[in-house]
Amino acid sequence: PRTTRIDALGEPPVRVGAVESVAGGAHKLLFLGDAADEEARRSAIAAAVGAEASLTVAIPGMVEVLPKGASKAEGVQHALDILGLTASDALALGDGENDLEMIQLVRAAGGVSVALGNARPVLRAAAEFSVASCDDSGWAEAVERSE
Asked: Which DSSP helix (H) or strand (E) runs through 123?
């Protein structure tokens, strides 16, 4: 099944069923399909949810529906606040559209923003520089270049 594509991402176990059946409500919905149909799927989902939610893509073919305004940038900012740091102290590394706000937050503050070699074009344009893909030790290259 298509759900096996996200096993390596460390997401919670996939449950298929009505949103109402999820205890405590849903915090993220994933719509999986062929990468070639991603834009059409995203448009249909955007029309259905309107301004009530945020949409993003982590891997080709997987459209994520999140609570309005939810992003990695929000989580990173919260972690930095707890640690008494600012985004200028951070190294943001990403490859998916879901990393865009985080990259923008860190770059705007003067931190180090890096797109992995397999990053989507929009992320490459937002990052300070690009490195190899994760599979080719891009994360290590990013750390070395940021020192």
From this structure: helix 121-126
